[in-house]
Structure formats: C-alpha cells, structure tokens
Predict the structure.
Amino acid sequence: MAEIETFYEVMRRQGITRRSFMKYCSLTAAALGLGPSFVPKIAHAMETKPRTPVIWVNGLECTCCSESFIRGAHPLAKDVVLSMISLDYSHTLMAAAGHAAEAALEDTIEKYKGNYILAVEGNPPLNEDGMYCIVGGKPFVDQLRHAAKDAKAVIAWGACASYGCVQAAAPNPTQATPVHKVITDKPIIKVPGCPPIAEVMTGVITYMLTFDRLPELDRQGRPKMFYSQRIHDKCYRRPHFDAGQFVEEWDDEYARKGYCLYKMGCKGPTTYNACSTVRWNEGVSFPIQSGHGCIGCSEDGFWDQGGFYDRLTTVKQFGVEATADQMGIAAAGAVGAGIAAHIAASALKSAQRKKQDSEEV
Amino acid sequence: MTDTRANIHVPNPDAPTPLEAARLTGGARPEDIESLRMQAAVYVYEVPVRVWHWVNALAITVLIVTGYLIGSPPPTVEISEATNQFVFGYIRFAHFAAAMVMTVAFIARIYWAFVGNRHARQLFYIPFWRLRWWKELIFEARWYAFLEKEPKKYIGHNPLAHFAMFFFITLGMTFMIFTGFALYAEGAGQGSIYDQLFGWVIGLAGNTQRLHTLHHLGMWAIALFAVIHIYAAIREDIMSRQSMITTIISGWRTFKDDRVE
C-alpha cells in the first residue's frame, strides 16, 4: 500500500502547517475524551498510516449529513476528510460525474478491496425492487450491497442510514430500510442524528484511523463516546427540571427565564446524543439553549413519537389518536360507569331474590 | 353433579348448648347459635402474603400518583432558586423508592410461593390445560352477569379472580418492573447495575420514548385492575357465600352457609 498517501501528507499538500496539524490532533484527542498522552499517538497515526479510503454513497437522504460534515468546527477536520473523500467516491463532493464517477467507484473497490470504509448517507427503499432510488441507472440498494461486499466496515451516517428517518415514517410507502437491515455481514457503526454533529462525524473517522479499530459501540451500535448519555443528562437546564420549574407556554415568563422545556415536549430525556456537551456550529449553541425543545432526531423512529411539542406520545390504534392518559381516563370512565351499573343491578337482583324467598316461605 | 342443597355440617348431638355467657347476657339469640353451627373457617393467607398484599397496595398507589405526575408535571413552582428547590426531584424520588419497595416485596413474595402454603402459589400460574378450570371461570363470569342464581364457594381465588390477578399482577407487575428499571437505567447511566440487568429492554424498544408510552399504558392497566379488584372484593364480601376483606386482613376464610357446593 506504499502508493497511498498518509493523512499528514494530504494535509501538508493542502497547505496546512505542522503547527495547525498538531492543534488538530490535540483538539481531536479532547473531543474523543482522550488524555494528552494520546496527542502524539494521533499525530503518529496521521503521519505514518496510509489514509483510509472512504467510499461515500447516498441513498434516500437530504444531504444534511454532508452539509454538517463540511462544517466541522475545526477547519482542518473538514480539509482532511474532504480531501480524503473527494479522492475516492462521493456523489455530492467529487468533481467527476456520470460514467466517470461510476468508474471511480469500481476502481476504488477494486484497488482497496477489504480495506476501505463504506460511509452510507441515506437508506435504500426496498419497495418496487428498489425503484424509488436510482443511482447510475440501478437501484441504490444494488449499489449499496455491491460496495458493502468488500468494505472493512460500514458507517451509517445520520438518522436515515441508522434508523430510517422521515422517509421510513409510518406508513413508509417506499419501504425505506436502515442499512443494518440490508447489510448484515459487516460491522456497522451507527452515527445517528439529523444530521449528526460534525465533530462527532470527524471524531469517529479519526478514532478508526488512530487505533485501527472500530470505536466501542453500545447495544444499538452507536459509538459510546458520543452516544452513551442523554441530552437530558448533561443539559444545562436540568436543575430547573429537578426543581419542577417548567416552561408552560412558549411566550411565558418561564420561557424568558430559561426554565426546563419538558412540558413543551422536549425529547432530551429520551435522546442519546452529544448536543448538550459538544453543541453545534463550533460550540455556539444547541436547540435547548436556543429555547426550543430537543426533537429527538438521533432516536429510532423519531417521526412517529407523536408531536414534537407534546410530552406524551399519541398512540394511533383503531383509527383514534390519543395519549396514554386519554386512553386510560376513557377506560377508567368506562370501568367506573360499568361498576356503577353493576352495583345497581346487583342491588336490584338481590332485592328481587329476597322478595321471591319471602314469597316462597 | 353434587346435590348443592345438602349440608356439610354434622351436628354433635352430645354437645351442650354453646356460648352460655353470651346467651345469658342476651348477646346470642337462638338463631345466632344456629348460624354458628354452620360457620366454618379455613386459614388461607399466611402472614407474609397478607403483609405483601398491603405493602404492594401502598406502593402501587404511590407509583400511580407519582407516575402520572411524572408524565404530566404539576404547575411550575418558584419557592427558591433552582439549586435549593427539588419539587419534581422529590416526586421522582418517591416513584423510584416505591418501585424499589414493590420490586423487593415482589421478589420476597416469589420466594414465599416456594415455602408458603399452596394458596401462596396460586398467583403464579393458571391451570391453562384444565378444562374444568375454564368451565368454572365461565360459571363465575355468568355469576357476575346475573345469569347464575348463586356463586360457588372457593377457598383461594375464584377462577375469574385468579385469571385477572395472574395477568394484571403477576404478568403486569413483571412488565412494569422490567420497563421501569430499563427507564431507571437511563438515568443510572450505561455500565450501571441497572443497565447491565435491564438495559436490553431499551434495545427491544429502540426509542425510549416508546418505552415511556408502554410503561404509561401499563400504569393504566394496573390502575383499572385496582378499581375492579376493590369493587369485586367489596361486592363479593357482601354478596358471595364467603368472606373477602377480612380474609386479607386476618388470613381466615369464613363461610356464610354450610351447604356442600
């Protein structure tokens, strides 16, 4: 593999100084939760290891993952990864188009067989033989299977690839299917979010390069270092939650005071992501800090959990739409009315029996 | 079928007339003495079963009230700065504490099913393959539907009650314990003992918002069971042929008549 450049060489070619490179290494170590002793290790890996080829394929998606990715907080991360990707195959970022682009994909698969990482943005629709998403004249699901066959590992970028996102929301007419249900024989790293945070995306790739292995994953296949805690666990408004101080209306005094958005349907308590620590746009803010509840975009089926602004999920069964409480109260009312009627009937029946008994005697 | 009008009671003709003191003070009339001859009692619920019943009832009450409030919190209160105020925290604490008590009590109750008397085991299985049991269940349902003139006598739970308790308490509480501890594991954090024991439930549900909804529906199922259970116990205490409410206090089942069936 001598012909493949290292990351460091790519960076230097892009005009990045060694000083900036070292800064990138220390920031990445910090983002991954590693100690200062790991900075030279990262630098060493970047300098010596041949860069990992990445094939980036796009299925049913909105490109928000790519958009997030190229806005990495540290400009170098963007440069590294952009140069890395544009060299291989990526619909939205590469210069080539048409047959040339498809030829590049075949070249990469052939050249780096078993060594490249397949990054999937979006998911394949399986209905109508996959005809809802065509890439280069063929269903996307075929391209995905073909590219995954010789991949070292698969990264499922975003909620689409990880869980299905909006195109898989009920009733899912195209049968959009997350990657792990199509590719079952490769290690898959889910990096959910709509989109995932840029630093999380570059962090995952850098980790894989530095340590030459997949990051530690949780039960759902997400990197533990970014998805092991809920938004709620590290939310700066958490003290207001424990105190019982909630925003009651969007324009009330409590909203101005920055109270907890739990009652406004914030999904922070059920969402695993790094937003409340890493934040967005170079650490500027994140939804809750901007006064809007979390919508739970990095969770499985987040489009089907009722309204974004409701605490309790609406349950759609038998054609009615109600929360657990509405269903419970209706059932309690029915049971209460039933009991009342039963008491009346019991009293009548026993009065009737007494009368009969006394007549018999 | 057995003759349901025949009596179990065999009088002891040599016995003297009982309750001399009560008779002489006027507290016991001849018909009271006659009623006394027919009375019979069986010791059904041992102390641990009775204690568990009431601890469980109290814990479930706390869990339902606090659980509802966790889903729909009370209005915002501003007693003090958020650092010094813990209103919602205390509601959640009460929920978790009651859940711990309920779970430990349930485990103790399962243990007692092994070492206690045969009635202590009734809660944990239903004789699914026994046709007669299903027939008796239908009979009891017909009694509730006013289609039978008079209920039968039972020592333990009647088949209908047995069925309801198995599904709502044994299975229902198990469901609530598993989903509840999975939700608790979220706060306790990955790698915690709760996560190691119950974290897999989160994996089954995928999104924990879904798990919250299921747990919430389970709460309503148990609340409805409690309402029906209390009504049925009071009604049976009045209208059936055996004691109900005193039985879960003293453990003794008494009968109001001495007929065979």
